[in-house]
Design goal:
about 600 residues, alpha+beta, Potassium Channel Kv1.1, Chain A, Serine Threonine Protein Phosphatase 5, Tetratricopeptide repeat, Neuraminidase, 3 domains, four-stranded antiparallel sheet, 17 helices, globular
Length: about 600
């Protein structure tokens, strides 16, 4: 008897099976059923069938090993095999196919990927899998390999990563490695990969205008390091490489005591001519206009990064744990993960993709605690505390070491200095400054640590001193043109800028710049608003002055200085902070 499909509503009493996980579309005449878990369940089953060696119709052979598979699966998931099997190539009719351009590890991983959609990367297999993924045209696996490598890039391997990326045609990895090499050139040039570069590769590096170096001495030392690695073979290249070093930007003492005493330079007429040009530049300022060239211009490191503002004060003067960052692509501020501790008048330093927050004031106590923000993992972690409690301190990084100086411990202004070593999560006490400096500023410049301004509880300073890490000593440096505490400092275009602050009677909007080449300070255009407790940083070839106090209220405003125009302009206001903030730039890879 035929089934009656036209039951009345009162007759439809049978229990319906559960279809809640599947798609069901119904109309008056039709019903469309779709089992949503069919594909996720089918591929694991096909992988199991392959493991049993059943229904396989192709064998892939490489380096004496062979892997069974199904042509239909390979053609559906790997573009290389889709082209092979669907375009009637000779291999499409073969039971066995020899694969010659990748190794066993990569082939096994990528065939497994065809069935599972998953590949496990580690430092032992990532390069071979990336080569295989490029050969098989599996772009998402190739890009995943590039991402994995970029997370592990280091001065010791950056040049190798760049070379590897060039061979594979991976523009993402190549461009990122190139930027990393420019950013950490001084560190990269210390390692074996740099010493083994060809002449043309070294020439291209030394000629870059975007090298991020503390001073031109680092470029000269890198040049000589490469030459001396194989002097007999490489000495003929010295004049051409030395012409790329901006010798006029070196100090006269360094030129006289270090550069001119290099044996290979002494015996080269072309090299001596470059030295004479540099010394003339220093000794006869009135002739500088006649010898202007790229060698007399500081390298431009046009860093583009996220500007992070951490801690500080709200409009009621209360300390904050809040974090926000400015995205130069969207030109907007966005809230980020908060610190674990409220901190105003803290110190901040950045190394690579990590931002470190030191000490500060939480509304009750001065702090010795330290925490770090990892921009890749988007989270804060607690580190070993400083040896001293410090608010209104200065912090800066030089190489892989962070230096903190001065501050206020709740009783007195401090002259003590300590360094933090991220590799060991440990602190080391260093030689103290010549005077106590609270609310001063410190910055790395030409391989030294400069300490500027501040006060000792009685007197506000205009003086500057600098620390030599090689000798663990402080020496006097040229004083600023104005007394300043609660000032902001930053390096831009090889010059040191100091802005804002308080001189004991007024809140300053003036800005001055120190040129290491002339060893002198000079004023540039003032900010639009007075700013004490201002935070200053360099980003995208400009200075960014963030927040502060104008004598009446804490500021949410931000100003940007263009050195080409000698002009300050307002940028987007912060959304969650006002004065007393910590500031750091984490570069965009």
């Amino acid at each position: 008897m035929p089934l009656n499909l036209f039951l009345s509503d009162s007759q439809q009493t049978l229990e319906e099976p559960s279809l809640s996980r599947d798609l069901l579309e119904m109309s008056n005449e039709t019903m469309i059923f779709q089992q949503n878990d069919l594909f996720p369940s089918a591929f694991p089953l096909m992988a199991d069938i392959r493991r049993q060696g059943k229904l396989c119709d192709v064998i892939l052979k490489v380096e004496g090993q062979q892997f069974s598979a199904h042509k239909l699966v390979l053609a559906s998931t790997i573009p290389y095999f889709h082209a092979m099997f669907m375009n009637d190539m000779v291999e499409a009719r073969n039971k066995e196919i020899e694969i010659k351009c990748i190794d066993v590890v990569a082939l096994e991983a990528l065939v497994n990927f065809a069935y599972t959609g998953k590949v496990v990367l580690d430092m032992n297999n990532v390069q071979s899998i990336m080569i295989g993924a490029s050969f098989f045209q599996i772009s998402k696996v190739r890009d995943a390999c590039a991402t994995y490598l970029l997370q592990r890039i280091h001065p010791q391997n950056a040049l190798g990563f760049r070379s590897f990326a060039e061979q594979l045609g991976s523009s993402t990895l190549k461009d990122s490695a190139e930027k990393y090499i420019e950013w950490y050139f001084s560190e990269v040039s210390q390692h074996e990969e740099y010493l083994n570069l060809t002449f043309m590769e070294v020439k291209a590096l030394l000629g870059k205008n975007d090298l991020r170096v503390d001073n031109e001495e680092q470029v000269f030392e890198a040049c000589m390091r490469w030459i001396k690695h194989d002097t007999e073979t490489r000495k003929e290249y010295l004049p051409e490489l030395l012409s790329l070093v901006r010798i006029p930007l070196l100090s006269p003492m360094y030129i006289t005591d270090r550069v001119r005493n290099e044996e290979q330079i002494r015996y080269s007429i072309q090299c001596r001519d470059l030295i004479d040009e540099a010394l003339t530049f220093h000794l006869l300022p009135e002739r500088r206009a006649l010898i202007q060239s790229f060698r007399t211009e500081p390298r431009v490191c046009d860093i583009k990064g996220y500007i992070y503002v951490v801690g500080g004060l709200n409009r009621h003067g209360e300390s904050l744990s809040t974090v926000e960052f400015y995205d130069p692509n969207t030109k907007k501020w966005t809230l980020g993960p908060s610190m674990s501790t409220m901190r105003s008048r803290l110190g901040v330093a950045v190394i690579k993709h990590k931002l470190y927050a030191f000490g500060g004031y939480n509304g009750r106590d001065r702090l010795s605690s330290v925490e770090v923000f990892d921009a890749r993992e988007k989270k804060w972690s607690t580190l070993t505390p400083m040896n001293c409690k410090r608010s209104a301190l200065g912090a800066t990084s030089l190489g892989d070491i962070i230096y903190v100086c001065g501050g206020y411990d709740g009783v007195t202004s401090l002259n003590s200095v300590e360094s933090y070593h991220p590799s060991t999560n440990s602190w080391c006490s260093l030689a103290p400054m010549s005077k106590s400096r609270s609310a001063g500023a410190i910055i790395a410049c030409q391989g030294y640590i400069f300490a500027l301004g501040g006060h000792d509880g009685l007197t506000i300073f205009d003086d500057v001193e600098k620390y030599n890490p090689a000798t663990n000593t402080w020496v006097e440096a040229p004083s600023m043109l104005s007394k300043r505490c609660r000032l902001g400092v930053a390096m831009l275009g090889g010059k040191l800028y100091a802005c804002g602050g308080y001189d004991g009677s007024s809140f300053s909007q003036t800005v001055e710049v120190f040129c290491p080449r002339t060893n002198k300070w000079s004023y540039v255009a003032p900010m639009n608003a007075p700013r004490s407790r201002v935070a200053l940083t360099a980003n995208m070839g400009k200075l960014w002055a963030v927040g502060g106090y104008d004598g009446m209220s804490n500021l949410v405003t931000v100003e940007v200085y263009d050195p080409q125009k000698n002009k300050w302009e307002y940028a987007s206001d912060m959304i969650a902070h006002e004065g007393g903030v910590g500031l750091g730039v984490i570069s965009i890879p």
